[in-house]
Amino acid sequence: MLLVRLLIIAVVVVAAPVSSPRDTFKGPSDTIARQVAGLPSSFKWESTGILVGPPNDSRKLAALKDPSIVYYEGKYHVFVSTVDSGGYNLAYLSFTDFDEAKDAPLYYLDQSAIGTGYRAAPQVFYFEPQKLWYLVFQNGNAGYSTNKNISDPTGWSSIKNFYSSMPSIISEHIGDGYWLDMWVICDAEECHLFSSDDMGQLYRSSTSIADFPNGMSNTVIALSEPNRFDLFEASNVYYISSGTYLLLVECIGSDDARYFRSWTSNAITGPWKSLADSEANPFARSNNVVFSGEVWTESISHGEVVRTNVDQTMTISPCKLRFMYQGLDPAASGDYNSLPWKLGLLTQTNSAC
Ligand SMILES: *[C@@H]1O[C@H](CO)[C@@H](O)[C@H](O)[C@H]1NC(C)=O
Ligand SMILES: *[C@@H]1O[C@H](CO)[C@@H](O)[C@H](O)[C@H]1NC(C)=O
């Protein structure tokens, strides 16, 4: 019976002209009929309060930012950017439950062979073919470090870069922007590296699985927007299931707050189709997030889906998504690099599965 109803609705949706009764469909059947690979066409979230912020130590950090998170061997492993008056670097923390995050010791990764200097916006994953963890980040280039043991933050290698220099298609478009927020995802044949320029371009380079991490080339513009704030930075690309990839990109809304838009595609190479990609129907924005306590942030900024599959395919389940993000006291002001970003967690409340 349900199946029959779904089929009828599906036929109506496909056949419907632009202003059709489809817009008057309400309720779960409508959501199910239009969903892509288990993803809804609109999202609802609940947020925690502040989970973790800068510790009170001699580093005097202004912010913890840009979380990358995997759940592996009974623990959440989180890599973050640290911001202090000297600039950006990276840190690691781990905990078994989110309510323990605030007490987790922060290991400053400049103490590992990653070293001091500008490193930011980490992405962690396990590259199965080499049995190695990779930490990918921006360092002026797209840098990476490797480690056999994600639980041992002293074990990260010295940095190598994916590129000999900025790909020419990026230098031709970047203008006054910044080259940042690198993201790697591999399918069965190739690994792809996405990056942004804060100017409305999302770039993608590729290499073969066999050559990875070498050979990143053939850089193209994967998606672009004439208004740079509509496609700003912090892209995530995930594999949902056969035929569906999910793209998230952080944008700046008409209220100046950060939020995420979303697209899907049947290939990492695109083309990308709108999923929830507007301020009115965002992937995650203040207007589709309910806070369990005080509304401690109006920005839903740089973050990642909590991954329990840790490998290079960036596979996630579309069910009950969790998204760790950075937020900000709405009253905070001042220089962007001194803003007190802290971390929170969204849990999807309208999952169809
Ligand atoms: C931070 O640490 C210093 C030195 O231990 C201490 O004097 C101060 O009260 C602490 N501040 C907070 C907010 O905990
Ligand atoms: C990984 O590192 C942790 C922390 O140093 C250590 O306790 C554990 O034994 C290491 N695992 C392996 C397989 O070396």
Task: Give a written overview of the molecule.
Helices cover 8% and strands 39% of the residues. The chain contains three helices and 21 strands. A five-stranded mixed beta sheet has the order 18-1-21-20-19, with no helix packed on it. It has a four-stranded antiparallel beta sheet with strand order 2-3-4-5, with no helix packed on it. The radius of gyration is 20 Å and the shape is globular. Residues 1-34 have low confidence and may be disordered. The structure holds 2-acetamido-2-deoxy-beta-D-glucopyranose (NAG) (2 copies). Residues 149, 151-152 line the site of one 2-acetamido-2-deoxy-beta-D-glucopyranose. One 2-acetamido-2-deoxy-beta-D-glucopyranose binds at residues 149, 151-152.
Q: What is bound: which ligands?
A: 2-acetamido-2-deoxy-beta-D-glucopyranose
The biggest sheet, with number of strands, parallel, antiparallel or mixed sense and barrel status, is: 5 strands, mixed
Number of domains: 1
**Secondary-structure content class:** mainly beta
The average pLDDT value, as a whole number, equals: 91
Determine the fraction of residues in helical runs and give it as a percent range. under 10%
* Count of beta strands: 21
CATH topology: Tachylectin-2, Chain A
The CATH superfamily appears as Glycosyl hydrolase domain, family 43
The unreliable regions are 1-34
**Overall morphology:** globular
Gap between N and C termini: 19 Å
Radius of gyration, in angstroms, nearest whole number: 20 Å
Q: Helical element count?
A: 3
- Spatial arrangement of strands, main beta sheet: 18-1-21-20-19
Task: Summarize the helix and strand pattern as letters.
Answer: HHEEEEEEEEEHEEEEEEEEEEEE
- Assigned CATH class: Mainly Beta
- Proportion of strand residues: 35-45%
What is the CATH architecture assignment?
5 Propeller
